[in-house]
Amino acid sequence: MGHDEPSTPHAAPAASWLQTHAGILFAAVRRVVGDSLCAYDLGLELSALIGHRWNSFDPGGDGTRMAWALRLAIQLVDRAAERGAVPTGERCRGAAEPEVRTLSREDLHQLSELARTPLDLDDDAGDALAAMERSAPSPGMLSRLAPSGLVTRLASDVREDG
User: Fold this and answer.
1) Taking the alpha carbons of 127, 135, 85, 103 in that order, is the dihedral positive or negative?
2) Distance, CA of 104 to CA of 128 (rounded, Å)
3) Model pLDDT for residues 6-65, shown as the tens digit of each residue
4) Cα separation of 154 and 29, whole Å?
5) For residue 86, with 0-12 CB atoms within 10 Å meaning exposed, 13-18 middle and 19 or more buried, which class applies?
6) What is the reported pLDDT for 11?
7) Given a cut of 80, is residue 145 above it in pLDDT?
8) Around Cβ 31, how many Cβ atoms within 10 Å?
9) What span, in angstroms and rounded, lies between the C-alpha atoms of 103 and 36?
10) Are 48 and 91 in contact (CB under 8 A)?
11) Is residue 83 helix, strand or coil?
12) How far apart are the first and last CA of the chain?
């Protein structure tokens, strides 16, 4: 399961950080959202958002970079729940045509499994994840969340494993 590299002036440091931490971010979103397809879609949008806002991180006020990223995820999940669909604005910003990803049942299962494993978070990021889980929209609202269309499942895979 790859992720999009941000295409901003800060792409190299953001891409490097995301290369190391994307699994944690995608797993955290999956824990909150409950659906692997929407979680992956949100993870890609979050990756683009992190790339675009890379220089807005303030270590003096935002805590760790992971805590900052998880707080961005809280806002993104809320925005998606309000819309009823995963947003694409960050991935589409400056892109002629954003890439459409097709995930297999195995891809979705891997993300489900990753979300079940303990996440190695510092205290600040752990607090941000706990806040994300507490402030998440209701399960009913999240169950109606639709993927953006930039992430689809293989036509032969009619339901998600795990």
Assistant:
1) positive
2) 30
3) 444 456 889 999 999 999 999 999 999 999 999 999 999 999 999 999 999 988 888 899
4) 21
5) buried
6) 67
7) yes
8) 17
9) 10
10) yes
11) helix
12) 16
